[in-house]
Amino acid sequence: MKLVKQRRAPTERPAEILEAALALFVEKGFAATRLDDVAARAGLSKAAIYLYFTDKTALFQGVVGRAVTVNLGHVEAMLEAHQGPVADLLSRILEFMGDRVERTPMAAVAKLVISESRAFPEIGRFYLKEVIGRAFPLIEGLIRRGIARGEFRQVDPAMTVRSLIGPMLLAVIWHTVFEPIGAEKLDIKALARHHADLMMRALAAESRS
Fold first, then answer.
1. For domain 60-203, which CATH number applies: 3.40.50.1860, 2.60.40.10, 3.30.830.10, 1.10.357.10?
2. What is the pLDDT of residues 47-83, one digit of tens each?
């Protein structure tokens, strides 16, 4: 008896295409992935992909948007809603990042950008603009707010952001490169909490007599 594939709503197709594309980008790399492969993995025709994405680069941008930039939206919402000490919010943001690296495709996308940007600089430029270009100014603004409130000592906000993000980049590399070849599993959320504690102590303004 021949099985008939259930027809899906058009609104579901972009998500299915992006899920298939991410899996293939991670398995094969950007260069080796063909739109025909993505279509086959998603159970659609190649023509159906062109209804939503103009080319493979646009498809990659969609993958980044679904896997990474949506998390920036959550951070922006946290910023807007927060009223208390800046140190508390920075710690929550680091823990949120650790959770996203551990439980979502964010790490796989970041690894993809690192590995493919030399050959496909448009990938790196897009990530630099849409992810780093949005995230760094947000955190720099928080550092400046903490300094202005007297919570933090005088530091260089731009360099501080890079210091904050460094361990999360290590977590991305460890999770996507070393764990698959046998390295011990890294507790990324624990690393984020540990690093937040170290950074808040390092940033704290000196107590005054």
1. 1.10.357.10
2. 999 999 999 999 999 998 888 888 888 999 998 898 8
Q: Whose structure tokens read 């948007």?
A: 65
Is the CATH number 1.10.10.60 carried by domain 10-53?
yes
Reported pTM: 0.84
End-to-end Cα, the chain, rounded Å: 84
**Tens digit of pLDDT for each residue in 97-126?**
999 999 888 999 999 999 999 999 999 999
Residue keyed to tokens 């949120």: 96
Q: Which residue type is seen at 39?
A: A
Q: Which of 127, 68, 104 is nearest to 188 (CA)?
A: 104
